[in-house]
Amino acid sequence: MPKIIGGSLHAHRQQVRARVFEVLRTQLYERGFDAVTLAGVAAEAGLGRTAMYNHFPDKDSLLVAFVEAEAAHYVDRLREAVDAVPDPVAKLATFVRLQLRVLAEYHLPPGTALASALAPAAYRRISAHADPITEQLREILDAGRRAGRLLAEDPDILLPMITAALTSRQVVDVPPEQLDRAVEAAVRFVLRAVGATEADETTAG
């Protein structure tokens, strides 16, 4: 029987998952999704293959669990950052900045590349985590519109357009010393697209 760490079975499972996810995060960054194997993650995390399979029966289940954990943490982080800013235009700028910063750090294959790498059911589970992020953006646009700070455009049209801009890796695939400038250019682009004035941009930045 494997040694229980953390004082209880629940704590043990949480600590094992955290250790596995940290290894997976590093391997995704260094090698890319296609090169990651369940056995390789288990070995680096110090787990036997049987113990690994008890937690994650296959690579898809490992990736889905990882993304679910990352997404839950990110949604909390995003809401805390946005709620800390009172002005709706500044809220939108904060949202855009954080989305792009995370995109710059996030190394799973985006969009269709991830869809082709996973089984359809696994990809649908991962895709579902965009919903709370989209709803956060909708709330920001609605607040800005009600305050007269943003254009009264249909949010169902604006949302996919803004989301597309914030999921383009070309925006953040720049040398590290150019990332700040790229992110701020994108912030200004989105604010102009939704009708924020020049003065609002300065306040939000």
UniProtKB/TrEMBL annotation:
Domain HTH tetR-type: 14-74
DNA-binding region, residue intervals: 37-56
Keywords for the protein's UniProt record, in alphabetical order: DNA-binding, Transcription, Transcription regulation
InterPro entries per record: DNA-bd_HTH_TetR-type_CS, Homeodomain-like_sf, HTH-type_TetR-like_transc_reg, HTH_TetR, KstR2_TetR_C, Tet_transcr_reg_TetR-rel_C_sf
Database matches in Pfam families: TetR_C_24 (PF17932), TetR_N (PF00440)
SUPFAM superfamilies, alphabetized: Homeodomain-like (SSF46689), Tetracyclin repressor-like, C-terminal domain (SSF48498)
Record's protein name: TetR/AcrR family transcriptional regulator
